[in-house]
Amino acid sequence: MNVDLGIWSKLTKIVLVLVVVAVLLLIGLCYLPLIQTNERYQRDNLRLKTELQRETELSRLLQAQIQALQTDPKAVERLAREKLGYAKPGETVVYFETNATAARP
Question: Are 85 and 93 in contact (CB under 8 A)?
């Protein structure tokens, strides 16, 4: 028995397709904030990893400087001369200042 319902069978198929599309869109809209949050967390994670690498390198550099100051007397002398402007008796300290207009070509 093959009954032709005419336009109603076509409309039923179209409605079912539209309902499936609507359900899929609803699911997509429900997960969109979660996907955006996940992407933001990934960006933050990458930024923090980069910052951690930079800070680790700075820590390694500072540890090397501390080690040099604890073991090398010449490093202490160099630091005192550069930072504090100390000089040995009989030495003359000369300071050079950079002129802002002369530094530009």
Answer: yes
**Does residue 72 contact residue 64 with C-beta atoms inside 8 Å?**
no
pLDDT in tens, 22-80: 999 999 999 999 999 999 999 999 999 999 999 999 999 999 999 999 999 899 888 88
The verdict on residue 2 lying in a domain is no
Structural domain range at position 91: 7-103
3-state DSSP of 78-105: HHHHHHHCCCCCCCCCCCCCCCHHHHCC
Taking the whole predicted model, whether its pTM rises above 0.70 is answered as: no
